[in-house]
Amino acid sequence: MEQWLDSDFHKAIDPAEMRTQMRAFSKFAAVAGRSTVLRSSPVLTMLRALLSEVKQLAPVLGDLKHPSLQQSHKERIHGLLGSYRLFDEPVVLVGTLVEKGVTSKAAEISQVALEAAQEAQLETVLDRIRGVWETKELDTIPYKDLRDVEILTGVDDIFDALDESFVSLNSVLGSRFVGRIRPKVDELATRLHQLQETLSEWVAVQRQWMYLQPVFSGGSMSGGRGRSKIQEELASEARAFQGVDQAYRDIMKKTREDPNALRTVTRS
After folding, report:
1. Domain 136-266 falls in which CATH fold?
2. Is the dihedral of CA 93, 97, 103, 105 positive or negative?
3. Tell me, what's the pLDDT at 236?
4. What is the mean pLDDT of the chain?
């Protein structure tokens, strides 16, 4: 026990190894307690007292060394220890932690570690969703015989991926541990909702463009000379469509250059 108390919490202490040794000593103490010779031995009494201390100390040290602890969690632990900043100290003896009352704050420290672990799991879900949209691309195909003009295709795959992402995000938002990472979740959800709404409108506009493009495809719009009869009769409508047509072609050009779904529909 003294060896552990004199060890540096940051380096030498392995809570799992402490628990392993504690189980071995506990077994020895149990066997010795059945001996009529050793039962009343002061050494056995001292061993049992030390085991009792270690039994309280090992779980707390495990929580304090939890790999999911972030700075916000560490600050909360500092507050529990009377502002003793153990995570900022280069060397912290386990004995010092005992003096600072870590065992008396075991329940509170355990709760902080639990929250850190749960938040880390939620972060993993967020990272998995982000990973999907880092590689999800919009598919395009050439449209008829128009030079350098393409249209969206296979958008059902994007909508299916969105549905799956929203299910995962709702699961994260439903967790009672979402508090610290709520801004990240909300930001991602907002971007995905923007993607869903924009893509729905995009598909609708494309459908109308495909219907009207042949109607106003004569003359300068198809690269030929002169104007079609429809363009002459619907001059104002034709001019309006020219603007839409050019904007659509520009959007599809940018989509070919960068087909990433999330960046494409959320770029300014």
Report:
1. Butyryl-CoA Dehydrogenase, subunit A; domain 3 (1.20.140)
2. negative
3. 82
4. 83
Q: 257: which 2 tokens?
A: 């250059």
Q: What is the C-alpha separation between 66 and 58, in angstroms, rounded? A: 12
Q: Which two tokens stand for residue 214?
A: 């042949």
Task: Please state, for a pLDDT cut of 70, what percent of the chain lies above it.
Answer: 76
CA torsion, ordered 118, 122, 124, 125, to nearest 10 deg: 140
Amino acid at 260: N
Distance between start and end Cα atoms, the chain? 63
Contacts 24+ apart (CB under 8 A), 178-184: 178/122, 180/70, 180/72, 180/115, 180/119, 181/119, 181/122, 181/123, 181/126, 184/126
92-147 tens-digit pLDDT:
888 888 888 888 899 999 999 999 999 999 999 999 999 999 999 999 999 988 77
pTM score: 0.74
Taken as a whole, the chain contains a residue count of 268
Tokens for 114?
């639990």
29-51 residue pLDDT tens? 565 555 654 556 665 555 555 65
The domain segmentation of the chain, as residue ranges, is: 2-115, 136-266
DSSP string, 194-234: HHHHHHHHHHHHHHHHHHHHHHT-SGGGGT-SS--HHHHHT
